[in-house]
Design brief:
The protein is an all-alpha fold. The protein folds into two domains: about 5-45, no CATH class; about 45-80, no CATH class. The protein has helices spanning about 5-15, 20-25, 35-45, 45-60, 70-80. About 0% of the residues are buried.
């Protein structure tokens, strides 16, 4: 999903190959392609903020300062994923 290729590919992936709809309780069959395009444009507009918040949450879950590994270590691990 990190590099889906296109919005159309993502739309088909969501409808036919993923369990995202089941996990979220959403039927992607009822979602139009244009709706997905609008949503993806909105997500892309806020990409930096979303990535920063996700990284902060991941960092908090996986690593703590008490383990003796600071923020620089966490960033290098994240970049290598």
């Amino acid at each position: 999903m990190a590099s889906p290729g296109s919005e159309l590919h993502t739309f088909n992936w969501l409808k036919n190959k993923s369990a995202v709809g089941e996990l979220l309780g959403f039927n992607f069959e009822s979602c139009s392609q244009m709706s997905l395009y609008r949503i993806s444009d909105l997500l892309f507009k806020h990409k930096e903020s979303i990535e920063q918040k996700l990284f902060k949450n991941i960092e908090g879950l996986l690593f703590t300062e008490s383990q003796g590994k600071g923020r620089g270590y966490c960033q290098s691990v994240y970049r290598n994923l």
